[in-house]
Structure formats: C-alpha cells, structure tokens
Write a structure and sequence with these properties.
This protein has about 140 residues and is mostly helical. It is about 75% helix and about 0% strand. The longest helix is centred in the C-terminal third of the chain and has 37 residues, at about 100-135.
Length: about 140
C-alpha cells in the first residue's frame, strides 16, 4: 500500500476518535483548470502531503493578502506627499539663505505660501475626515 493511502486511512482513524465538534464534516469545492489542478497536485506531492491536508494547510495557514487602499486614501496620501514636498522646499530655501536680509525676505515671502499650504491642508483634512466618517457608517 502506498504512502498516500496509508495517510488517508490514518487520517480517517484519527478523525473518528475526535469529539463531534472537532470532526471534519464540511468540504470546499474549488473549480480549476487542468493545468491548475496539476500544479496543485504537484505542490502537494512535493510537500509530501495528501491533497486535502495540503489544501487545508494552504487555506488556513497562508497569509491573506490585504485589499488595496481605497482611491480616497490614495488621493489623501498623494496630497500629503505634495504638502510635504512644498514644506521641504520652504525649509530648504530658509536654510540656504545665508545673509540676514535674504533670510528675512525669504521668511516673509514664504510665510504667505506656508499659510496657504496649511489652510489647504486643513480643508483637505476636514474633507477626508468627513469621507472616512461617511464610509465608516
């Protein structure tokens, strides 16, 4: 008798000793192409597991991929990156002004830019907060 048949018999014997709540009484049907099935059978063979044990292990112990972020989140992220770039440019210009007069003029000219960026950020944050609360229900 080959190893797979022995494994199936052993699994049935072990399952029969379990309490009713722990017995495997449910099944899952998965539709595949012949090529997908051949690949799955080969993967189970390489893992030295029967197909049911291999499938159970993959389904229950694998890392579940997360969904991609929503378009609203991506828009908010890109806006935040834009603000970050603007603030970085302002900081760079303030740091690069070597003379006191240049520093003062840079500060005064960039303060209005900074005020504009901060007010735009506040407005966008309020809009994003409203959308998140709306999505949350």
């Amino acid at each position: 008798m080959d190893a797979r048949k022995m494994e199936k018999i052993r699994a049935r014997k072990n399952d029969s000793a379990l309490p009713l709540a722990e017995k495997r009484r449910e099944y899952v049907t998965v539709w595949m192409t012949p090529a997908e099935k051949a690949a799955a059978v080969e993967n189970a063979r390489r893992a030295a597991l029967p197909m049911s044990s291999f499938s159970r292990k993959v389904l229950l112990e694998s890392v579940v991929p997360q969904a991609a972020p929503s378009p609203d989140w991506m828009r908010a992220y890109s806006e935040t990156a834009r603000w970050s770039g603007l603030l970085n440019q302002i900081a760079h210009q303030l740091n690069s002004a070597s003379l006191q007069g240049l520093l003062e003029s840079a500060i005064s000219s960039r303060c209005s830019d900074l005020e504009f960026v901060i007010s735009a950020m506040a407005q966008d944050v309020d809009e994003l907060r409203a959308k998140i609360l709306k999505m949350a229900g």
